[in-house]
Design brief:
Layout (H helix, E strand, L loop, with lengths): L2 H26 L4 H24 L5 H23 L5 H13 L16 H22 L2 H11 L3 H23 L4 H18 L3 H6 L1 H18 L6 H27 L1 E5 L11 E6 L2 E6 L20 H8 L5 E5 L5 H14 L3 H8 L1
Helix pairs in contact: 1-2, 1-13, 2-4, 3-4, 5-11, 5-13, 6-11, 7-8, 7-10, 13-14
């Protein structure tokens, strides 16, 4: 069945789900479960009908069914995993899962990744989100904040970041060859999530300091092993790609650091409400509590409370009110559902990775 003929069956469900969830997320800051259930049931029913149709026509490919199943499982894993990592809320995760069922595999033509084609949807969601976040952060941040951020990223941490990336790039390259993953941005996004998970795994700076010597030895050893085993490091193509990754991740970290201040406002502790997200960490020092800036997406220091992706709870607020702190900065959240819907539309328009279409046009 032609691409557009298949898409027509899914398009009503995609548009209804996208418009409804974008509206409720912008107006109420919530994604209602009834719309998620609608999208899930709509997508499952259409997929089942198409499978039965092809089975009746004796034109059903087992490979297609298995890949569809794996891709849906991937959507569930990403939705749950990103919620677990506090990248988005549970509602956003469920919404991404619903879209992974609603978008037919025939859509993913450009930049197709076998078994997990909805990874392209992730790219199309986060590219416009990053551009929007970058523009607002640069526009709203002061000159002093920009200088401090550049100094922090390209200062003392420059060398350590270089060696960390040198090791992670090795594993990403091997993994990319295994699943035939192509595309600079896709690999870069995967690297960022590895850094993020690393930051979540080692939450305390004390833990890092305690094992600092062992960590340095391990990093040096892995770098030497790569130099001995990976012949690609002695080519110009490798260093060109590696330096692009290094520059991209440095810019990404700079934008995130600027955004901490640009997308936050100070409120009185007594005005804190459930669902709010802290833009500062509360750390206990001696008998007092002090505030610290969230200077990076990959914070290693554990705060006084551990927020959930959905924000502060009543219990968190009670704990904060018992401290000596009077005011604290909270994040000004961005509705995520419209960006996920925009990513879906870009996927349909580009028939896969939007960056491939942009590169082709320009």
């Amino acid at each position: 069945m032609p691409y557009m003929d298949i898409l027509y069956y899914f398009l009503p469900g995609i548009l209804i789900l996208g418009i409804a969830t974008s509206y409720t997320d912008i107006k109420y800051g919530k994604i209602k479960n009834k719309w998620i259930l609608f999208g899930l049931f709509y997508g499952l029913i259409i997929n089942l009908v198409l499978i039965l149709y092809y089975l009746h026509q004796k034109n059903l490919s087992f490979g297609y069914v298995s890949e569809l199943f794996v891709n849906i499982c991937f959507g569930l894993l990403v939705g749950f995993g990103f919620w677990l990592l506090k990248i988005w809320t549970a509602g956003d995760g469920k919404l991404f899962f619903a879209y992974s069922i609603l978008i037919p595999l025939a859509v993913y033509r450009h930049g197709y990744i076998r078994w997990i084609p909805s990874a392209m949807l992730l790219v199309n969601v986060f590219v416009p989100l990053f551009l929007y976040f970058s523009f607002i952060s640069l526009f709203k941040s002061s000159r002093k904040s920009k200088k401090t951020t550049v100094k922090d990223i390209f200062g003392k941490k420059l060398i350590s970041s270089f060696f960390y990336l040198f090791i992670i790039h090795w594993f990403i390259s091997a993994f990319s060859m295994l699943i035939k993953l192509n595309g600079f941005l896709t690999k870069a996004v995967l690297m960022m999530f590895i850094f993020y998970i690393f930051g979540k795994r080692f939450k305390r700076k004390e833990h890092i300091k305690k094992h600092k010597r062992k960590l340095i030895i391990l990093i040096i050893a892995l770098c030497i092993v790569r130099l001995l085993l990976d012949k690609s490091v002695y080519t110009m193509n490798f260093w060109q790609e590696f330096l692009y990754f290094f520059l991209f991740l440095s810019i990404f970290r700079s934008v995130i650091n600027l955004g901490v201040n640009s997308f936050s406002k100070e409120v009185s502790i007594k005005n804190l409400k459930p669902g709010m997200l802290l833009a500062e960490r509360i750390v206990k020092k001696g008998k007092k509590y002090v505030k610290k800036k969230n200077q990076s997406l990959f914070n290693l220091e554990k705060g006084f409370i551990e927020e959930e992706a959905e924000g502060l709870t009543e219990e968190d607020i009670k704990k904060i009110k018992k401290t000596n702190i009077k005011k604290i900065k909270i994040k000004q959240t961005i509705p995520f559902a419209p960006f996920i819907f925009l990513g879906v539309l870009l996927t349909l328009i580009a028939k896969g990775n939007i960056l491939i279409l942009v590169r082709f046009l320009f």
